[in-house]
Write a structure and sequence with these properties.
By secondary structure, the protein is an all-alpha fold. The protein folds into 2 domains: about 10-105, Rna Polymerase Sigma Factor, Chain: A (Orthogonal Bundle), CATH 1.10.1740.10; about 125-198, Arc Repressor Mutant, subunit A (Orthogonal Bundle), CATH 1.10.10. It is about 75% helix and about 0% strand. Mean pLDDT is about 80; it is low at about 105-120.
């Protein structure tokens, strides 16, 4: 219980800092945008990367999302947290980008390496490294074969650690729909990985 209470207090402090930065940004303080960017860029990048599939496109999506934040900040009324609003913008920008890319039928010729995981990994054997890379490739390939809507819900929930309620707010859907999409995404991922690895 103590750990959850600490996390809740930390999240509340983060939300309060975001609220102050948003107010400063509305007043024309350009440094406030830098502060919000520094605080949220890594999570925004992870979401974009998981949805668009390569580094350069994910960076473009994040840049586009923060441009949208700057243009739309005066209209932001705080009905959701800044974090929820930003993640909604990033998710929609990434899905729009994927649709645009599909229409243009331009696929990257080289698969980009996934973002570096934590630098602290401990002792690893070459066999373990190879097995991890194979599993990572299989998961990334399987993720591309899950519908956009289901993939977005799964990434926000499983990768970003958002609650069902937060995912629902980001995607503008009900909690029940979030649960259904995550369930369907997991089922599809299991099927795809079973055929890929099995």
């Amino acid at each position: 219980m103590g750990g959850a209470a600490k996390r809740d207090r930390a999240a509340e402090r983060e939300a309060q800092r975001d609220t102050r930065a948003v107010e400063r940004l509305k007043e024309g303080d350009a440094g406030a945008l830098d502060e919000l960017f520094r605080r949220h860029r890594d999570a925004a990048y992870r979401i974009a990367y998981r949805l668009v599939g390569n580094r350069e496109d994910a960076l473009d999506v994040v840049q586009e999302a923060f441009i949208h934040v700057l243009r739309g900040i005066q209209a932001f009324r705080g009905q959701s947290s800044f974090r929820t609003w930003l993640y909604r913008i990033v998710t929609h920008a990434a899905l729009d980008y994927r649709r645009w890319r599909a229409m243009r039928k331009t696929e990257s010729l080289e698969a980009e390496a996934a973002p570096a995981a934590s630098a602290h990994r401990g002792a690893r054997t070459p066999q373990k490294e190879a097995a991890d890379k194979d599993l990572h490739r299989a998961i990334e390939k399987a993720m591309t074969n899950i519908s956009e809507k289901n993939r977005a819900a799964l990434i926000l929930f499983a990768v970003e650690g958002m609650s069902y309620r937060e995912v629902a707010a980001v995607l503008s859907i009900s909690v029940g729909t979030v649960m259904s999409r995550i369930f369907n995404a997991r089922q599809r991922l299991r099927e795809l990985l079973a055929s890929e690895i099995g």
